């Protein structure tokens, strides 16, 4: 058993340090604590009856205050039996992101569902599961034009902008129309007898490439985003385990990779108390200059029976350190799991 874990762990860590990822959508460093935004196939993928997740990210307050990049997300999902070894799940989630002085805002609300199927499993052998999910919803982008001023509004007599004057810009005060958005994903995982697990999944977001233009021509579309993620939990002893992971994404010209590891301690009691601590690296492409290290994320998490609280901080290590003195982003995640009325036939990992 231990030799099997060593082989799997070696293979997974090799993938971690070879992977590449990308993103332009808002994203979280604690991506594993935001399953709704990571992969539609993770809808209902938990032990319990229903789940609520909430995430908050505050980025670059050190030099953009009082208007840093801020992202809020929340979701609720539930699962129910549809057969002896199968489950279906439904959920709804929302995200709000704002950036810069003009408060460029992205808002979206989506509903989704997933189907979880046990492929193989039984006594003395690992259980394999496959989940497929999809989401559909609406989004809208906007700018607070009242926070911007243009050269025509500059009053030379007072040497200040006159916000009451016309800016003379065609298309000003326009926001994007509400657009339809569609996402889909798959996830496979395998459970071992001693609480170990291994998983791999992939998703495609914005499959329909919706129009997001802030002006009437509607020529600007949202790039589709594909992502792949993998990880697992490998017990080192009765109380300690290691949870490596990687997320690889591409969206238009943007690439990014998150990879790292959390270490977990659990008391293994009925009312389980567990702690996680770890470090993650983020790499991204710099236009035509290839990949560069962007940030190191330090993570701490507390699991208390039905609750899981995560705190993390991104330490900037790119050229931006000259502007922010390595002060990057603060992130908070909170998850509540409502227990089921009885033990489920299908067991899900704790990502």
General description of the model:
The protein has one domain: monomeric porin ompg (Porin). 8% of the residues lie in helices and 53% in strands. It is built from four helices and 16 strands. The chain has helices at 2-16, 35-38, 61-64, 321-324; strands at residues 50-59, 69-81, 86-99, 104-122, 125-142, 154-155, 160-161, 179-191, 197-205, 225-235, 240-251, 254-266, 273-285, 291-304, 307-316, 327-338. The protein is globular, with a radius of gyration of 22 Å. The chain starts with a helix and ends in a 13-residue tail after the last strand. Residues 1-23 have low confidence and may be disordered.
Task: Describe the secondary-structure layout.
Layout: H1 2-16, H2 35-38, E1 50-59, H3 61-64, E2 69-81, E3 86-99, E4 104-122, E5 125-142, E6 154-155, E7 160-161, E8 179-191, E9 197-205, E10 225-235, E11 240-251, E12 254-266, E13 273-285, E14 291-304, E15 307-316, H4 321-324, E16 327-338
Antiparallel strand pairs: 1-2, 1-16, 2-3, 3-4, 4-5, 5-8, 6-7, 8-9, 9-10, 10-11, 11-12, 12-13, 13-14, 14-15, 15-16
Tags for this model:
single chain; mainly beta; Porin; 14-stranded antiparallel barrel; 4 helices; 16 strands; 8% helix; disordered N terminus
Order of helices and strands: HHEHEEEEEEEEEEEEEEHE
CATH architecture: Beta Barrel
Mean pLDDT: 84
Main sheet summary? 14 strands, antiparallel, barrel
Rg, nearest Å:
22 Å
Overall strand count: 16
Name of the CATH class: Mainly Beta
Outline, from the CA principal axes?
A: globular
CATH topology: Porin
CATH superfamily: monomeric porin ompg
Strand content: over 45%
Strands across the major sheet, in which order? 1-2-3-4-5-8-9-10-11-12-13-14-15-16
Q: How far apart lie the N and C ends?
A: 21 Å
Helix tally equals 4
Helical percentage? under 10%
Q: What is the domain tally?
A: 1
Which structural class is indicated by helix and strand composition? mainly beta
- Poorly predicted ranges (pLDDT <50, ≥5 residues)? 1-23
